[in-house]
Fold:
Amino acid sequence: MKILIVGGGGREHAIAWKLAQSPKKPELFCAPGNGGIEEFAHCVPIRATDIDGICAFAKENAIDMVVVAPDDPLVAGMVDALTKEGIRAFGPTADAAIIEGSKVFSKDLMRKYGIPTANYATFDNAKDAICYLEQSTFPTVIKAEGLALGKGVIIADSFEKAKDAVLQIMMDKKFGKAGDRIVIEEFLTGREISVLAFTDGKTLLPMCSAQDHKRALDGDQGLNTGGMGAYSPSPIYDDKMEAECMEKIFLPTIRAMQAEGRPFKGVLYFGLMATKDGVRVIEYNARFGDPETQVVLPRLKTDLLSIMEAIIDERLSEITLSWEEDAAACIILASGGYPKSYKTGYEIFGLDKVEQATVFHSGTKIEENVYKTAGGRVLGVTAMGATLSDAIQKAYMEVAKIQFTDMHFRHDIGRTGVL
Ligand code: AMP
Ligand code: GLY
Structure:
């Protein structure tokens, strides 16, 4: 069986690593892939957003299944295009991926179906938004409607800052068309939790919980990034909270998507906040999270390929997930300067010395048989342990063996998870 994975980061490395363990022994391809993924898959130089290129490659090479991992091609309809060509594809159609692609859509969906989330208003022009802000209390949260590389959310603690955010998004078009409309929403406080779930549109199986660290520097300081590390499980997400989420959030969401004629098939990511009034949805993603996947898939005992096939065939109810008891922690090693400007092309040393962790490559390439840095986030070092503290300690021990010029990482990954 031939599988093509679309994408080229740490998440796709983790998916390739997990699929490579399948008893079905698939032959793996990845577009575009990266230096680490090459160990498991034939990497082909096609961009993850090149829908025609991916369809053509899949047809020419008789690919049996395509796994579309990143947000942009999902929202742009890659799964629809593949399906039209008769190629089996894992991931939501564009109609369903809109749950991530448009925050106006997702907020209106939650309001219509009574799914708990922050109160909000939506705007398609700066003047009305600023008028609304004049009556608001602060902090407040301003969100660009569309995909903005995780940077489209601004928490403003004063009217001036909020107004400035609105002007940057709607007038200066900081995020391009993604900022044509905005959501202004109530600022919530509480602990955040990420829960990824497999769903075929009817059945929903939550994965183990996780928590990511978005800020660049220790103590949640510095700029927002794509994620500087993650751990699993979240200590606050117990059976009671899972039952609450199933009843009030997870099942209502897939039923709502069904009712709207947009059945969601694939991985639905719930970004949650546990507030004093109960769990609220902060955001939905239409895919595996990065770097959450790098701590969730290592704990999954069930064959990932069987799960993906069951989702495509809408028989997920036949699957039972089983999980390792051990906790997992992933430390991201980034290029100095990330998420602002940074240099790449530096040789990476010490990967061969890593013994007690799995290193997922986010941005690397192989040149003359050596691994070199090729992105802002470079590597994710995932270790498992009987407790989260053990996992964290092991991950940092292995991180100490790896070096490249200007390497930067956080020293406090997982600390919030150790009660
Ligand atoms: P998002 O891209 O929607 O996940 O938002 C990025 C981050 O902004 C989240 O992980 C939260 O930390 C924060 N955030 C988003 N919405 C809210 C909210 N309504 N109240 C407080 N913090 C929020
Ligand atoms: N870690 C957050 C995301 O994948 O969007």
